[in-house]
Amino acid sequence: MPRFGLFAATCGAFALLLGGCGGAPSHTALSGRACLARLSAHDISYRPTDIGDPGDPHCAVDTAVKISRIHAALNQSATMSCALADRLDEFEREVVQPLALDELGSRATRIDHLGSYSCRRQNSRTAGRWS
Predict the structure, then answer these.
(1) CA–CA gap between residue 79 and residue 126 (Å, rounded)
(2) pLDDT of residue 69 exceeding 60
(3) Which region holds residue 43: left if phi is over 0, alpha if psi is between -120 and 50, else beta?
(4) What are the Cα distances from residue 80, in Å, to 41, 66, 72?
(5) CB of 69 within 8 A of CB of 44?
(6) pLDDT in tens, 74-85
(7) What is the pTM of this model?
(8) Contact 1/8 with Cβ under 8 angstroms?
(9) Beta carbons within 8 Å of 112's beta carbon, 6+ residues apart
(10) Burial 68-78 (b: 16+ CB within 10 A, else e)
């Protein structure tokens, strides 16, 4: 009988682990006009921008935007895909601002970052692997 209990516990644990694989529904990445409309609806300060040669697959970015403010201002503009800007907005609304209110008693007013999109080869060389 103890072996059956161990087997049942093992099967139950395995089922729980597999159940965790499903997780929450995945966030559907928007692109094009639908994504830009979402950024506008969330009052994000952005402008569409062209990045490099659209024919170069190494530097392709779907619906590139330059962001200067999500809800908090950024220390410098950041170039990224619209989908990433949308996720950054979600992260700020759902994580950063509530945490700032809980820990600091006020909303975050500025987010400092160290850089954004940069299509280049490693160490900015003219040849070699893409960074």
Answers:
(1) 22
(2) yes
(3) left
(4) 18, 7, 17
(5) yes
(6) 999 999 899 999
(7) 0.69
(8) no
(9) 74, 75
(10) eebbbebeebb
